[in-house]
Amino acid sequence: MTKNVFKSGTTIVNRTVSPIQRFVRNEDGGAFTIFVLLGFITIFALTGFGVDIMNYERDRANLQSTLDRAVLAAADLDQTKTPDEVVNSYLDLADLSDKLTKPVEVTESFGYRKVTATAETEVATSYMNLAGVDSFTAKALSTAEESIGAVEISLILDMSGSMQSHSPTGGKTKLELLQDAATKFVTLMLSSSDEDKQNISISIIPYATQVNAGEGLLKNFTNVTAEHNYSHCVNFIAEQFSDADIHRGDTLERTGHFDPFSYSEGTIDTPVCPVRAGSAITPVTDDLDFLKAQIKALTASGNTSIDIGMKWGTALLDPSMRGIVGDMATDDYIVPDHFADRPSDYGSDILKIAIVMTDGQNTDQYMLNPSIRDGWSDVWHNPESGASYSWTEYFYELVNGYWELRNTTETTYGDYSTYHSNGTPKHFAWSQRGEWADHPYGNPEPENEWNDEPGTSVRLKNTELLNRASLQYIADVVFGWQPSAPAEWTSKAYSKVETSAKNQRTKHVCGAAKDQGIIVYGIAFEAPRSGYKTIKGCASSDSHVYDVHGLNLEDAFASIASSIRKLRLTQ
């Protein structure tokens, strides 16, 4: 062995390495290098594959998001372009042209549209092609529909006398324009699929001087006064307008059945509580044909009571009415079985909507004085006496934009005998004969050949008299002999709730409705400014009130329907 010696004398260890040692050292280094190289390749592959997957997911998400937005826009019933045009325009803007795999599918009816689109795009790989995967196929499917969620609606419609006048812009009467608009509204709301339709209930509350609840509804209240059964309205007291509810056991005074407006006999023409076709409340239904028939049957007459219309309209959205509505469903009334549990609770996911429409303003409401609400009258009637009485009634009618004086002649048959204690034996005035006697005409005592009077007089209850003859007729004919009759049977026969009080009642009941979360829309249709102010104060906000003229009434209802509808992404 050789030693290397430095001049300093330091001895250095022998550095000679054997061939075996060199081999061992070279093998360790190569293995490590291979391990590092394989690790690098693995990391590179995983990273590259991850990038390809992220690119795929990015493009798939972009395609799905674009398709979702496209079908939502295409399903919008207010959309003027065809669904196919809308979907393709969205894809074009996202540089996804020609990615649809089949034509856009559209299912629609009036008030309902469902749009389905499918698309796919190829996503090229940058790294996975090294493993033989050149691309991924990103697919997207999206369906959207515009339909109605669960909704309860009260449609509160003015049918007062002013609604029979012609609109200066519409060419039709205001009532005819209302009928057209309301018919299209209920059709729009109820013409979707059967499943959606059963989520929507509509009540119609026509109002004039009063609101005819209808016998089928009113009979379910247990504490209504029973003076008569000729009509079915109630007089709410002021405090009842502070709440949205009407409970089954609430004390309700039946409105007296009388006519302060016309000159009529036999059957009164214009009772304060309307009984004409179409005047009764239509409660909680989705029967489109019945709703359309009720709207078509509306006729115009009487004063305007927005407050009473709102009271009933709000109550038909309030849970306090659920038991009564349920009973009406059980009784095979117009309420269908699937609405037996409505009105729903406040705070549920069911939307509650009140739409109140008027062409005027609150006017006087008439209530019969207690002294003649019930009991016996001092009047006897003999329908077979052979007597007749004719009179001419004058009235103005709007013809081609001008008010023209018209008249009609009416004739009534039969005698009225009225009792009066005048200090003589002759206590009965034979009104149509201008005579006094000691008995009602037709009831002589004793009967003989000298006093043979045809027919038999029957004493009338006050309710029977007021159902037969208007106040003016009673004053002029039945009690025509009595100087005080005009005052006794017109101005003194009833009391009034005047405009200012009714405006306050409207304000209170609208406030109670809004406090419960009911959304109130108001429509002032060619109404005076005071009427518009009342409606505006009732509505949920300024954006919920419509001041419209003529044919714009239909646009107002369509706008309300559009705001009620909700777009729903279903897939």
Summarize it:
The protein contains 14 helices and 21 strands. The protein is α+β, with helices and mostly antiparallel strands and 571 residues long.
Question: What features would you describe in this structure?
Answer:
With 571 residues, the protein is of the alpha+beta class. It folds into three domains: 20-147; 151-368 and 496-569, von Willebrand factor, type A domain (Rossmann fold, 3-Layer(aba) Sandwich); 371-492, no CATH class. It has 14 helices and 21 strands. The protein has helices spanning 19-75, 83-93, 174-190, 194-197, 215-218, 288-296, 306-315, 322-330, 462-468, 471-478, 485-491, 499-515, 529-538, 552-564, and strands at residues 105-109, 112-124, 135-147, 151-158, 200-207, 234-235, 253-254, 282-285, 351-358, 365-368, 376-382, 388-399, 402-413, 415-419, 428-430, 435-437, 458-461, 494-497, 519-525, 545-548, 566-569. The strands form six sheets. The protein has a six-stranded mixed sheet, sandwiched between helices. A five-stranded antiparallel sheet has the order 16-15-14-11-17. The chain has a four-stranded antiparallel sheet with strand order 1-2-3-21. Helix 13 links the parallel strand 19 (519-525) and strand 20. Helix 3 (174-190) packs parallel to helix 14 and helix 10 runs antiparallel to helix 11 (485-491). It starts with 18 loop residues before the first helix and ends with a strand. Residues 1-15 have low confidence and may be disordered.
